[in-house]
Design brief:
The protein is mainly α. Helices cover 60% and strands 0% of the residues. The chain is elongated.
Length: 213
C-alpha cells in the first residue's frame, strides 16, 4: 500500500467540541511559529479530521486566526493576572503603583516567554471593541486593556494620578510598554542579556509611572 497514511483521529475532543479542538491546534501552531503558522489544513490534520470539517466552524483562515488571536490575548491577560495576584488586596497609593507596575511586568514577561502567541494576539486588525471582547479575557473576566484601565483608575482613586490626566492614559502606557516588548522580541534589543533586559524593563516602567503623574 502506497501513499501517505491519514493522521489518527484525536480522542481529546467530544462530539460537538471540534471547534475547540481546532482552536487549540491553532493556538499550538501560533505558539511555535507565530500567526503565519496558523493555517486551516494543519489544524484539521492535528485534530484528525478532514480539511473540510474546519469550515463548519471557521469560514476561512482569517476567522480561525481571529479566534486564535483572541485566545492568545486571553493568555496575555492570565499572565498579567498572575503578577497582580502577588500583591496585597489593600487600597493605598503604594499598592496602586505596584498594580500598574505588575500589569506592565506581566505584559513584558509574556511577550518574551511566548513570542509566537504575543505576535498572534496582535496579528488581526481590530478596534478597541475587540480589546474588550469576552473571548480576549483572562480568568478575572477582564482583557489586558481592561486590566490596565483598572490599574489606572486605582491610581486616580488613591490620589496618585490627577483625574484630569486620566483620559487616554491607557494609550500612552500601552504604546510605551508594547513598543519595548516588540523591540525585545523582534528588534535590536533581543540581543540584550537577561540582566540587561530587566534593567531596561524597570526603567521603562518607572518612566511610565512618573510620566503619568
Amino acid at each position: 500500500m502506497t501513499g501517505t497514511a491519514r493522521p489518527p483521529r484525536r480522542s481529546t475532543y467530544r462530539h460537538g467540541d471540534l471547534r475547540n479542538a481546532l482552536l487549540a491546534a491553532g493556538v499550538d501552531l501560533a505558539r511555535a511559529g507565530g500567526p503565519a503558522a496558523v493555517v486551516l489544513r494543519e489544524t484539521t490534520r492535528r485534530a484528525g479530521v478532514a480539511p473540510n470539517a474546519a469550515y463548519r466552524h471557521f469560514a476561512d483562515r482569517k476567522a480561525l486566526l481571529q479566534a486564535v488571536s483572541a485566545a492568545a490575548m486571553a493568555q496575555l491577560a492570565i499572565a498579567m493576572e498572575a503578577e497582580l495576584a502577588n500583591l496585597p488586596e489593600t487600597t493605598s497609593a503604594e499598592t496602586a503603583h505596584a498594580r500598574l507596575r505588575s500589569v506592565g511586568v506581566g505584559y513584558l514577561r509574556f511577550a518574551q516567554a511566548e513570542p509566537g502567541l504575543f505576535r498572534a494576539a496582535f496579528s488581526v486588525p481590530d478596534d478597541l471593541h475587540g480589546a474588550a471582547s469576552a473571548d480576549s479575557a483572562g480568568r478575572s473576566g477582564k482583557t489586558p486593556f481592561q486590566l490596565l484601565g483598572i490599574a489606572l483608575d486605582e491610581l486616580v482613586a488613591t490620589g496618585v494620578l490627577p483625574a484630569a490626566k486620566r483620559q487616554g492614559a491607557e494609550f500612552l502606557a500601552w504604546s510605551s510598554v508594547h513598543g519595548l516588548a516588540m523591540l525585545l522580541i523582534d528588534g535590536p534589543l533581543r540581543e540584550l542579556e537577561p540582566a540587561q533586559r530587566r534593567v531596561v524593563e524597570a526603567q521603562l516602567l518607572d518612566m511610565v509611572d512618573l510620566g503619568l503623574r
